[in-house]
Amino acid sequence: MMKKIAILSLLFLAAVQLFAQNAPYDPARNFTVVFYNVENLFDTINSPGINDGEFTPSGSYQWNTKPYRKKLEDIAKVLSSVNPLELPEIIGLCEVENKEVLTDLIRTGQMQGGNYAIVHETGPDARGIDVALLYRQNAFNYLSHKAIPVNFPFDSNSKTRDILYVKGLAAEKDTFHLFVNHWSSRVGGEVQTEPKRVFAAMKLRNHVDSLFRINPVAKILIMGDFNDEPTNASVFQFLNANNKRKNYAYNELYNLMYDIHNMEIQGTYYFRGNWNMLDHLIVSRPFFDKTQGYFLEYESGKIFRAPWMLEKANRNGDEPPLRTFTGREYKGGPSDHLPVYMILQKN
């Protein structure tokens, strides 16, 4: 009798899973978040006070309307392909020159249906590249934002990107705290430049802790190109983002890309024959509570790749991202990074 009950239970569970798989996609119960480093999304205009002369028709990249429009269309194709069932509700971006290029991006044919709004602040980066956030106005109710400056007390001559903080409501009552990052690069040496990324992590952590002091169950979503990997001190120790699934403190963050890199040996940036996981999606623990609005699974973090955004397989069998430029050679790809994404769900 027990064996028969067990068999019937298994058949019931299988039927439930099959029904769930075949159930129609419900946009109201799904919420897609993407982060993408779009590799030097510059317009073709030489802006006063900005070191962007290389990305003009007369500059070293010979950057004119044709490759600019192609890059916009390619980025739009990537973003619209992440979730083929609907456009992402939230898109974090870095390496964008200004609000004008973002406006051009959301006006492309593949993005127009998203009814996107832009959150952007002009930052201090010498090359003029900033972080930004796009959101679908029918799915995310913007409340406020601010730029968080990252000024190094040990190097006042070095200027880096601000951290962009955005607060808003998903499904009209689920409060999200979003942080978009682009930390200092490793140019000059990983060890030599590490203090700058550690400082950015500490700056971000201070803002995260201030939110936790107000609300210990705040839903915090951090995204960005950190130029460090999940196990580097900046991310793991100073930001306190890890892969614990048990025995964690309420204020410990979870890095959705940690296991993908360390166990599956995947990454978003290909450098000297190795995959680096420089692009992160990090969340506070309340996102795993399935009883309170939108939620995630521990495996929700993904890397998006499609054949048309990759180079041909090299001798290692790897297919790196198809860059826009290698040095000064035009390759015509969308970016030298792969985007990361997650799809939140709601019961």
Short description:
The protein is 24% helix and 27% strand. With 347 residues, the chain is an alpha+beta fold. The strands form 4 sheets. A 7-stranded mixed β-sheet has the order 5-6-7-8-13-10-9. A 6-stranded mixed β-sheet has the order 3-4-2-1-17-14, with helices on one face. The chain has a two-stranded antiparallel sheet with strand order 11-12.
Low-confidence runs of at least 5 consecutive residues: 1-20
Distance between the termini: 34 Å
Strand order of the largest sheet: 5-6-7-8-13-10-9
**Helical proportion?**
10-25%
Mean pLDDT: 93
Helix/strand/pairing category: alpha+beta
Radius of gyration: 21 Å
Give the total of beta strands.
Answer: 17
Largest sheet: 7 strands, mixed
SSE string, helix = H, strand = E?
HEHEHEEEEEHEHEEHEEEEEEE
**Global outline:** globular
Can you count the helices? 6
* Percentage beta strand: 25-35%
Explain what the structure shows.
Helix 2 crosses helix 3 (99-106). It is built from six helices and 17 strands. The chain has helices at 2-22, 65-81, 99-106, 190-214, 233-238, 258-262, and strands spanning 30-41, 90-96, 116-120, 130-136, 140-148, 163-170, 174-182, 219-225, 241-242, 253-255, 269-271, 274-276, 279-283, 302-303, 325-326, 329-330, 340-345. 24% of the residues lie in helices and 27% in strands. It is α+β, with helices and mostly antiparallel strands and 347 residues long. A seven-stranded mixed sheet has the order 5-6-7-8-13-10-9. A six-stranded mixed sheet has the order 3-4-2-1-17-14, with helices on one face. Residues 1-20 have low confidence and may be disordered. The two termini are 34 Å apart.
